[in-house]
Write a structure and sequence with these properties.
By secondary structure, this protein is mostly helical. The protein has four helices and no strands.
Length: 172
């Protein structure tokens, strides 16, 4: 998931930059391209956040089941809950920035475009910070999932070898 998350984020940032370029250069007179790109950027941002939260939810269930099977304890489950709480906080900040830039964009259609330009710059900075932090949390979750699944595999392998009399544990 970290690679998928990175690719989605890079795509979103390209759309954001393209939206800014179209808006700043006034490529279209009616600004319909700028608005269409802005709406697409907003929808893409929401898609990324939903996919990330869904990933944490699904892997959290997998980690909970694997922890129960392997007897690792509750530490991985507590860690997953902590990761979900952190990502939810970052998600709130992210969406606040997106709503702010969208609202100033709608308002700037009739008045101040400088406010929208400053809001867009601030939103991009906030998005970069949030994306970086979310990426570290996704990587932490992926490492935790690998660790828990590996311990489950080791335990299941040793249980199968220990209970099967036909398996020769001594290769000599």
């Amino acid at each position: 998931m970290p690679r998928i998350f990175s690719c989605l984020v890079l795509g979103h940032l390209l759309v954001m930059v393209g939206t800014g370029v179209v808006g700043l250069l006034k490529i279209d007179s009616g600004s319909s391209r700028h608005m269409a790109l802005a709406v697409f950027a907003l929808v893409l941002a929401c898609l990324i956040q939903v996919a990330t939260f869904t990933y944490l939810t699904v892997t959290g269930k997998m980690i909970m089941q694997a922890s129960n099977l392997s007897g690792v304890g509750v530490e991985p489950v507590v860690t997953v809950r902590r990761l979900k709480q952190k990502i939810t906080r970052w998600l709130g900040l992210f969406m606040l920035a997106m709503v702010f830039v969208t609202a100033t964009g709608a308002a700037s259609r009739w008045s101040q475009t400088r406010v929208h330009l400053l809001a867009a710059a601030l939103a991009i900075v906030i998005q970069l910070i949030v994306y970086y932090r979310e990426f570290t949390l996704v990587c932490e979750n992926a490492a935790l999932l690998d660790r828990v699944l590996a311990s489950t595999h080791v335990q299941r392998t040793s249980a199968v070898r220990g209970s099967d009399p036909d398996v020769d544990s001594d290769p000599a």
